[in-house]
Amino acid sequence: MLLQFLINALSLGSFYALVALGFSLIFGVTRAFNLAHGELVLLSGYLGYALSKYLHVPFLLTLPICMLCLLFVALLLHRLLRRVQEPIELNTLVITFGLALVLQNCMLLFFSANYRLIPCTGAPFELSWAQCTVTRTQAMLIALSLLATALVYILLWKTFLGKALRATIQDPEAARLAGIHVGRMSLIAFGIGGMLIGLAGPLYGRTAYLHPFGGTEATLIAIIITIFAGAGRVRSILLGGWLLGSVESLAIFTLGASWRDLVSGVLLIVLLLLTPEGWLPRQAKPSR
Q1: pTM across the whole model
Q2: Residue 22 belongs to a domain with what CATH number?
Q3: pLDDT tens digits, residue range 124-170?
Q4: What residues make up the domain containing 159?
Q5: Is residue 125 within 8 Å of 133, Cβ to Cβ?
Q6: The total number of structural domains that make up the chain
Q7: Is 209 part of any domain?
Q8: Exposed, middle or buried: residue 104 (CB in 10 Å: 0-12, 13-18, 19+)?
Q9: Closest CA to 197 of 50, 38, 52
């Protein structure tokens, strides 16, 4: 039972980290607080659902298609938000809140309020020696989350572009004085974040039911993990996702599924009150 609980918590936390990764990167570089993040994840999920159900596209093939489509959507969002004046955080919050309402109603119009799920094919992996099972979706979540985190980490810490992105996250004005094109870094961050959102969407449709008003939960998850780990801290986001998944799984196991959202909300309030800058250790500053 303990091993099954750990597997469930690890897969749920890996999905949470994947949802939060794009949000954290965009917010860290651009200071744009995107309240429509969850709706964009749902949009990608609905796209994956339509490709699987109506065009019979294999699930793994829907992932790169959704990533490319959400890349385009993220670039459009960047063009919209780059005209925002100071204070950027407050103004982007208002604009993206309105965008979230627009996306909710568009998804309601085209897909109705019915709950939809991308079916999982194939039998689960049976671990007879441990008397537990690992579904194909859980294995895919863990593998893709680790892969995405590793690729973003390599980009940020092993490339010159990554140094420029990290410098922009830490101090945009100093980065501009150092000759870094901050506007171009913002565009790149939106592009990478859009692809990560596109990757998370179909996995959301395999993990939970898609419905037009489910984006708020995904946005809340992204905010909690970003506050816990700090903007742009890739490894910390993965750890934060695992911890949140463990806390929610424990709440479901002990109190019931109806308590999960309450536990997440209380955790967000506690993090905001105690340590809004993040609990996990800060990463090293970028080399000059």
Answers
A1: 0.88
A2: 1.10.3470
A3: 666 655 667 788 888 889 999 999 999 999 999 989 998 999 888 88
A4: 2-112+139-274
A5: yes
A6: 1
A7: yes
A8: buried
A9: 38
